[in-house]
Amino acid sequence: MVDVFWIIFWVGMIIAFFYFGYRHDYRRNPKEFKRTIIGMPISLFSFMNGIPFISDWVRKLIRGEEKDD
User: Is the pTM of this model over 0.90?
Assistant: First the structure.
């Protein structure tokens, strides 16, 4: 029962952090905000696990850059 409380507590804290921390960014540009929220964890996780090409690919995708080929 205590574990359920802590899970609900942490999920609520994360939702509150995103809501209050990024509310103004979302109002300013919702499309860019969604790209950032999706791309940031993927890029960070791949870079920390030694897969930097995924991090670079996500960065180029978010910025809208064309391929160099």
Answer: no
Do 42 and 58 form a contact (C-beta atoms < 8 A)?
A: yes
Asked whether residue 57 is assigned to any structural domain, the reply reads: yes
Would 6 be classed as within a structural domain?
Answer: yes
68 within a domain of the structure (yes/no): no
69's enclosing H/E stretch is none
Q: Over its length of 69 residues, how does the chain's per-residue pLDDT go in tens digits?
A: 889 999 999 999 988 887 888 788 778 888 777 777 777 788 788 888 888 788 778 777 777 766 654
Judge whether 41 and 18 are in contact, CB under 8 Å. no
H helices, E strands: number in the chain? 3, 0
**Count of domains in the chain?**
1
